[in-house]
Amino acid sequence: DTGSAAAIPINEVDIAYVTPVTVGTPPQTLMLDLDTGSSDLWVFSSLTPSSQIRGQEIYTPTKSSTSQLLNGHTWSIRYGDGSSSRGTVFTDNFTIGGLEVKSQAVQTAQEVSSSFTQEQSLDGLVGLGFSTLNTVRPSSQLTFFDNARPNLDEEVFTADLKYHATGTYDFGFIDSKKHNGTITYTPVQPSPGYWTHSLSGYSVGSGAFQSSQISGISDTGTTLLYLPTAIVTAYYRQVQGAQNSQYYGGYVFPCASTLPTFTFGIEGARFTIPASYINYTRISPTSTTCYGGLQSSSGLGINIFGDVALKAAFVVFSGTNPPRIGFAPK
Ligand SMILES: O=C(CNCCc1c[nH]c2ccccc12)Nc1scc(-c2ccccc2)c1C(=O)NCc1ccccc1
């Protein structure tokens, strides 16, 4: 089997991407964020207090003839940005882009934090990290990819995220029309459960490439690129008027400043992030100060290759044994 579905930016700065999925019988359509940085599939639901719902579509298990309560199972997740959700679990038919998994664990939210309530276009998440990270207890549940894997033509899914445009997620095949040239693969460390791998180095603008192993996670669910402070300061040293603002919690600069590109290495291959991706957003609609798409990871304890980096490439998440990740130009 294979599947293919759109990755649609939820706002004008690509803060996150959502994909139409269907749950249950008859199918209920929700717009979910496919997230390689976590492994819970959770949705706004009929069990979510209406005070915490602001425009989201919900999954109503009682309206689905194929839903089954997973008795006594609960879940609770907190993300590094302090957002959180928790609730109960049903199994039901779940489809992404024509690829169906019967009796997928669908985690129904009984509580979501305010930052999720405020994201009106996001009805939940589909975790595509390793199932070891799943928070359902007493027994953890498998991700959509792990459930689909035995029926897939190839044990892969691919992400073709785009800057200010709709891209695609494909399951079970590698679409050669979506990338130019060879895919460069590098090993993935599957513990503790992220798509963890190394960059082979970086360069700023036209500067010399600095070879160094930089370990981090490729994470479609995180908006920006978070790297070690030494790399980030070297980058913003090239930006007139840039400063690391305590007030805004990161590097800001005059919106009119010229930004250099940022290049990262995967093994011997090089991928260049255009300056426009790093000129992420004005700090407020009328401000002339802008917030960078490249930020320091020192507060996180982990380097995160988020959407700002991933949208500069065609990315293959390979569930083979051993797992690996591939990057290709596009
Ligand atoms: O959780 C995910 C991916 N799902 C995000 C779902 C989501 C959470 N609010 C959302 C809002 C909209 C859409 C999706 C989400 N990735 C990972 S792995 C390690 C960390 C981490 C660990 C410790 C400290 C910091 C991060 C995170 C993290 O918190 N990223 C978000 C972030 C990272 C940095 C800054 C802000 C946020």
Feature tags:
330 residues; mainly beta; Cathepsin D, subunit A, domain 1; 7-stranded mixed β-sheet; binds the ligand O=C(CNCCc1c[nH]c2ccccc12)Nc1scc(-c2ccccc2)c1C(=O)NCc1ccccc1
Provide structural commentary:
The chain is globular. The model has no long low-confidence stretch (mean pLDDT 98). The relative contact order is 0.16. It starts with a strand and ends with a strand. It is mostly beta strands and 330 residues long. The longest helix has 8 residues, at 229-236. It folds into 2 domains: 3-171, Acid Proteases (Cathepsin D, subunit A, domain 1); 179-328, Acid Proteases (Cathepsin D, subunit A, domain 1). It has helices spanning 114-118, 144-148, 229-236, 275-278, 307-310, and strands at 3-9, 17-23, 28-35, 41-43, 68-78, 84-96, 99-112, 124-127, 156-162, 165-171, 184-187, 196-204, 210-218, 225-227, 243-245, 250-254, 262-266, 269-273, 279-282, 289-292, 294-296, 304-305, 314-318, 324-328. Bound molecules: the ligand O=C(CNCCc1c[nH]c2ccccc12)Nc1scc(-c2ccccc2)c1C(=O)NCc1ccccc1. Residues 16, 33, 35, 37-38, 79-81, 83, 115, 119, 122, 217, 219, 221-222, 300-302 line the site of ligand RB9.
